[in-house]
Amino acid sequence: MSELDPTERLLRSCRGEPVDRPPVWLMRQAGRYLPAYRRVREQVTFLELCRDVDRAVEVSLQPIDEVGSEAVIFFSDIFTPIPGMGVEVDFAPGPVMAEPIRTAAQVEALRVPDPRESVPYVFEIQRTLRRELASREIPLLGFAGAPFTLAAYLVEGSGSRHFGTWKRMLWQEPELARALLARLTEMTVGYLNAQIEAGAHAVQLFDTWAGMLSPAEYREWVQPSHREIAAKVDRSAAPLILYVNDGAHVLEEAAESGADVVSLDWRIDLAEAARRVGSRVSLQGNLDPCALAAPPETIAKLVADLARDAAPARGHILNLGHGCLPETPVEGVRAFIAAAKGLGASA
Ligand code: CP3
């Protein structure tokens, strides 16, 4: 097959159409492992960086020039749209709520504003990126946090090992938990559709904490919001990628969410995942981010193994199994992307 441009390659892979080789990008590809990011970050706080259109565009583009990534994810955080709902959030370095959400009155007070008014800079960043990327035919990815993961932080108040307060709420005050998830689902649908309108070629939903539930709990507390989002997001304009961290035990449920792509962490082999999902969805992933510390030859072998294992899937996007870590050697990231690009040459 003749060489596709990176946008066409990514969109075709999402939809399960033939490609010359798998596309490649990395979750958290703009971040502290890059000296160029650290230089920008020295001048501003993380929150300032997310709201500063010029700087956010600059760091979003860094992975293209610095490591050769083939997609751009706009620089932001899953908590960016939350202050617009009336919740005060800070970063230290993870998200911290000034007042954790624990009562019905707090849930009822949550606003679902038009994101174009509450976070206009997000769409300005995306429109600028689309213009910058047009000549290079590089796709732009939008994203949002999934309702379950956002709720876990909102109720707990910050990151946590087990999110016990949030999980207890599911059992002690299920109606309150459901109301909170409903509000977040409504916000997420509007937020993703506004990103698609601003030019995102595809959008990814990050559900980092959904994997901590049993399959039955996942079906009750997570899958309905994924399905509602997949049904209401304009997937004809932009495919939806669903990332469920630690989700090997709920793979079938993720494949039946209505998303176009399921993004997996490294706890499952892509060959097994491909067998289990069949032709329902494409796959994304799934190298352990720590493996980027290996020598370049080892990384090249791991990439070839991932591509081979994923070959039976209807489509595959090479990526990590979770975000790139701050300690990652830049050379390891370059080796990962170079190996992915080399897959076409030998085919
Ligand atoms: O992928 C990308 O390059 C886009 C940017 C992006 C960030 N966060 C930037 C960021 C994305 C997609 C996220 C998603 C995110 N944020 C998730 C879901 C995916 C995942 O990683 O599990 C979650 C749970 C968060 C919440 C969050 N934000 C945490 C826990 C932290 C602290 C951890 C850390 O790495 O410092 C953040 C801060 C954050 N978000 C940073 C970046 C680059 C670090 C900010 C800095 O100090 O420079």
How would you summarize what this structure contains?
The protein is of the alpha/beta class. It has 16 helices and nine strands.
Give your account of this protein's structure.
The protein has 347 residues and is α/β, with parallel strands linked by helices. It contains 16 helices and nine strands. The strands form two sheets. It has a seven-stranded parallel sheet with strand order 1-4-5-6-7-8-9, sandwiched between helices. The protein has a two-stranded antiparallel sheet with strand order 2-3. Helix 4 (53-67) runs parallel beside helix 7 (120-134). The protein is globular and about 60 Å long. The model has no long low-confidence stretch (mean pLDDT 97). Coproporphyrinogen III is lined by residues 27-32, 41, 46, 73, 75-78, 91, 93-95, 143, 149, 159, 206, 208, 245, 323.
Order of helices and strands: HHHHEEEHHHEHHHEHHEHEHEHEH
Rg from alpha-carbon coordinates: 19 Å
Write down the CATH topology. Answer: TIM Barrel
Shape: globular
Span of the ends, CA to CA: 9 Å
Q: Please name the CATH architecture.
A: Alpha-Beta Barrel
Q: How many beta-strand segments?
A: 9
Count of spatially separate domains: 1
Helix content estimate = 40-55%
Side by side, the strands of the main sheet go: 1-4-5-6-7-8-9
Bound molecules: coproporphyrinogen III
Low-confidence stretches: none
CATH uppermost class = Alpha Beta
Pairing-aware structural class of the strands and helices? alpha/beta
Continuous helix count: 16
Q: What percent strand?
A: 5-15%
On the 0 to 100 scale, the average pLDDT is 97
Please describe the biggest sheet, giving its number of strands, its sense, and whether it closes into a barrel: 7 strands, parallel
